[in-house]
UniProtKB/TrEMBL annotation:
It comes from Taxus chinensis. Coiled coil: none annotated. One of its GO terms (cellular component) is mitochondrial inner membrane. InterPro entries: Cyt_b/b6_C, Cyt_b/b6_C_sf, Cyt_b/b6_N, Cytb/b6-like_sf, Cytochrome_b_C_euk/bac, Cytochrome_b_N_euk/bac, Di-haem_cyt_TM. One of its GO terms (molecular function) is oxidoreductase activity. This is Cytochrome b. Its main location: mitochondrion. Residues 214-343 form the Cytochrome b/b6 C-terminal region profile domain. It is found in: Mitochondrion inner membrane.
Amino acid sequence: MTQRFSILKQPIFSTLNQHLIDHPTPSNLSHWWGFGPLAGIRPAIQIVTGVFPAMHYTPHVDPAFNSVEHIMRDVEGGWLLRYMHANGASMFSIVVYPHIFRGLYHASYDSPREFVWCLGVVISPFMIVTASIGHALPRGQMSFRGATVITSSASAIPVVGDTTVTRPWGGFPVDNATSNRFSSPHYSLPLIPVGASPLHPAALHQYGSNNPLGVHSKMDKIAFYPYFYVKDLVGRVASAILSSIWISCAPNVLGHPDNYIPANPMATPPHIVPEWYSPPIHAIPRSIPDKSGGVAAIALVFPSLLALPFMKSSYVRSSSLPDLPETLSVFPGGFLTIRSDKM
């Protein structure tokens, strides 16, 4: 007797069916697990909303600021794309930070999901660097001073510190060469997170998701479709509504007024304020009196996160039955929030 034809059993479609439809998923996953899918679509949105403004942007020290104003005032729909792109970096961080802290709190980095965690950690610095250099491109006063302060901190590196600073600058000040050297990586670096994003859930589906109870079981599982499609859809609709309200009603709420002033190397703002999603990194050197020690501490952030899966292992990984590492994982968020407020 011949079997009925099913497109889901054909090459490629069978893989998609395995990962997106029939994948067995713990039935007790909460909405905290919905931040992962939201983080997965954000890089693609950033690329789409960044490509079209890039056609009108001029990476030159003189017309860079005016080209951004041209996008906002003269290009049809340019204001919308620019606000979507600029605020998209904040929206990306809003979903990524809970995704990371949920992984820490529930020890999702533990065996057998070490590769999933490490892949996510590798994606993170590309996200941070892309956002940081993108913030410098409008050539506003705050963008200019922020780029100067952030890049000059590398001068604390022994022996190669000065070279590490002047190479990205293309000279001794942040000037025309810097705009060119920042614009190209800002276009190309996002391709790495976008390319690695499908690998992250694919590696996760090899062993399945962790769950709030923290105990691996093959019994209490359901198909990913339609149950978690609907659950994730709720989060995506809520995210789309909040994003629309944000972009339409308060697009500059997280911006800085000094960034609407063209960069002036002869004037310094009273306070150089980083983007709100950057203080978790900026708080590290501010907490260490020595400049070299602060730079070294920043350099150890991601290696420490990569080493985390190999430092501890336990059978039960639950927020209901927490051990000390899970309990302490809630403190970095509070500490960084307080510390960021002082910056």
